[in-house]
């Protein structure tokens, strides 16, 4: 009986939350688009929810270097059960991140704090990664990350 319980806990899923360029500056960026939350607060919020929903691990990662993000995605591609990514401005032009996300076996959720479809710059309204993501959540602020974790929890 105890062996069986042990196996169940080993099967509890792991999730990764990846934030791209300039998201380390949350709190200082335009409050109208990104609110006042800092990245540390956002990471705490998301890891807390992941733990409450039964995830065994929630890896939070942020980088301003595209190659580092590609390498992190490659590294996690076969080991996580769900991935949440806000690539920041890379969303709009990084085919390298698109191709790395294609390698991820688990569902990937694209999240944006602001509603990119309604932003004034035309280039910002296009995402080159949406087609390799199971879902896109945009314009819900930090709640979008929580919705993504909830969506993954329901499916895993
Ligand atoms: C963003 C939107 C992007 O256009 C922007 O470059 C970001 C953040 C968002 O979360 O709304 O850095 O991905």
CATH topology: Rossmann fold
Shape: globular
Fourth CATH level, the homologous superfamily = Dehydroquinase, class II
Which ions, cofactors or small ligands are bound in this entry?
Answer: 1,3,4-trihydroxy-5-OXO-cyclohexanecarboxylic acid
**Secondary structural class:** alpha/beta
Mean pLDDT equals 94
Low-confidence stretches: 1-9
Biggest beta-sheet profile: 5 strands, parallel
Oligomer: single chain
List the domain count as a whole number. 1
Instruction: Tell me what the CATH architecture is.
Output: 3-Layer(aba) Sandwich
- Main sheet strand line-up: 2-1-3-4-5
Pattern of helices and strands: HEHHEHEHEEH
Number of strands: 5
Rg from C-alpha positions? 16 Å
Q: What is the helix content?
A: 25-40%
Question: Total number of helical segments?
Answer: 6
Distance between the termini: 23 Å
- What is the CATH class designation? Alpha Beta
Percentage of β-strand residues: 15-25%
